[in-house]
Amino acid sequence: MSVRHALLALLSEGPKYGLQLRHEFEARTGEVWPLNVGQVYTTLQRLERDGLVESDNAVEEGPQKGFRITADGEEELAAWLRTPPDLSSPPRDELVIKVLVASRLPGVDVHEVVQAHRRYLVQLMQEWTRLKEYAADRDLSFALVVDAELFRLDSLVRWLDAADGRIKRAAVEPVAPARPGLPKIPRKVEVRP
Fold it and tell me: What does the DSSP 8-state code read for residue 31?
């Protein structure tokens, strides 16, 4: 998540104070990502240094210092919104690493490891589903965050199921000879507006 760009987006609506930006950031993100007020002011200082925001010169640092976005800040925000995140290489996901390590450790039942994580993820999905029922008509931002989390958790459960099946099949099938080279992982694709 880019706090820098989220603050630019909030400032694109009009001038705001640092503490106001913190409260609006948390409200707009469904209040699931708390933001330290020190991080807000540090980010605002960097944005000002980079010429993306301007501040009131009448007041020194503090809660009453107002900030507004500059033309360069508007361009930066627009470019960020149009640029897809770089998902070209797999993230270093702790769950994936645990399964990979467990699959090679002697004396470790990898299927037990997979099932322990699967049970935990299903429990989390049930908790998020209860939150979704609560948020359905109350808060659009929170409802969107809940939907994103449910989709993410569902994809992890599906991956665990696929990994468990692949590991079981690999234990039964003869080992294939090593391939001469690994396939290329797709790299960042440039998307033009």
Answer: T
Whole-model pTM above 0.70? Answer: no
Does 190 reside within a domain? no
Q: How far apart are CA 45 and CA 5, in angstroms?
A: 14
How many separate domains does the chain show? 2
Last residue of a domain, one of 56, 82, 108: 82
pLDDT tens for 51-101 read 999 998 755 555 578 999 999 999 999 999 999 888 777 778 889 999 999
- DSSP state string for 44-100: HHHHHHTTSEEE-SSS-SSTT-EEEE-HHHHHHHHHHHHSPP--SS----HHHHHHH
The domain in which residue 25 lies consists of 3-82
Let me know if residue 89 belongs to a domain: no
